[in-house]
Amino acid sequence: xxxxxxxxxxxxxxxxxxxxxxxxxxxxxxxxxxxxxxxxxxxxxxxxxxxxxxxxxxxxxxxxxxxxxxxxxxxxxxxxxxxxxxxxxxxxxxxxxxxxxxxxxxxxxxxxxxxxxxxxxxxxxxxxxxxxxxxxxxxxxxxxxxxxxxxxxxxxxxxxxxxxxxxxxxxxxxxxxxxxxxxxxxxxxxxxxxxxxxxxxxxxxxxxxxxxxxxxxxxxxxxxxxxxxxxxxxxxxxxxxxxxxxxxxxxxxxxxxxxxxxxxxxxxxxxxxxxxxxxxxxxxxxxxxxxxxxxxxxxxxxxxxxxxxxxxxxxxxxxxxxxxxxxxxxxxxxxxxxxxxxxxxxxxxxxxxxxxxxxxxxxxxxxxxxxxxxxxxxxxxxxxxxxxxxxxxxxxxxxxxxxxxxxxxxxxxxxxxxxxxxxxxxxxxxxxxxxxxxxxxxxxxxxxxxxxxxxxxxxxxxxxxxxxxxxxxxxxxxxxxxxxxxxxxxxxxxxxxxxxxxxxxxxxxxxxxxxxxxxxxxxxxxxxxxxxxxxxxxxxxxxxxxxxxxxxxxxxxxxxxxxx
Length: 564
Known about the structure:
single chain; alpha/beta; Rossmann fold; 3 domains; six-stranded parallel beta sheet; 24 helices; 18 strands; 38% helix; 14% strand; globular; disordered N terminus
């Protein structure tokens, strides 16, 4: 939707040309409200902004630049929100999305919803019509707060007084567990006004006392672990992205119990060795194997785990609440299962206190976890020859220390099971909201946050076609991202569901897009791969290339049948 780009300057939202120019007539006074807003964002770790500008936010974009927060132009606001999510996940700071009013913010709704379900601390800054004319003026005017009410943790309009304090409040709210998006409206008149605030507003210095090893809860957990014969850990994204994830890993390694993760927590423990069992959540075949351990465990520790990533087959799957202990910074809001003991605590501090109390001993003496590991390896070994299995095996062998993103679809489920993650936060995806076309913007955000780090986006042809305009963003930002497209000319996951329901394929066929030619048209390098050696060669060449590379891997749509 481009309706919000075609208004003349000075009337409604300005065109993209007006937004892209540095207007020397704008106030150069660093004491504008917009400057206080930007400086406060920078003070609290915001390092990049993503969005599509309009006339209502030109002063804000100027102020962000002054504060050292570069504005990255996306081609769609939802993609910009996902870029901010990728940047936030890699940098650890809040993400920032900037949109104009009306259709600009409305375009971003899917990306903001993704941030809500993916627990991204996203600040959404939108332009709004000046208050003096808002009561009479209706062009492009909608109630932003009501539009976003189900998706954000709070929505505030910034006024000339206290704007920086409200921004600080928004950051505090966005980064509090469970993290999520917060929305701020800023009108052009307020943005350009002189600010009565003397400077940016800092948050209070956080001081969380460490949990003592002799805390009664620690003693109870240590006793339950000591008495367990078949303990099992299910770890989630909160554990993987914790600033002290190393303390969590140290506890798990000392404990030695088998560990299942969600898809986004892959790599919390290196998956190429025990006790890691890989991920659960969307693959019925993997879940059936892992449920053997879930059903037999006499103690389950849920560490930073939110079942928002799990499919409906996990409803009530954990069984007896008396054997379940959940530890998280804030209780998850769900009805998937109940637990006997819910510990609300900082996960790193609790792990640090509990580790000295844990004595490694032989668990699961019947070898159950080893059998499940072998079963999973056999399930996902895959057929000989070319297909999605070969694509992921080749990527696994050559990706090295790359940050990898993967889009929603059949390929994501299979890849999340086959992919061997050795470090946390190295496989990024939309796993709670499962939105399509997420991999490319997540990769762009990750590349902005980690310049010099190799970034690879894995997509299906349907997802790429949905957000193909962001190839221009890659070109303009000069990011050497590698895009691997599994081109099966179908929405394969939906086709599988249609077949499972006894229905024929309807509305899932895709045409034969020449993706290498499209990549070249957008200023990148494009190549087609129909075998593993060609893919391997293309991946090696892409790593040395300055611009982006798109590798189109033609595969058969039926390659996913019984693959997961």
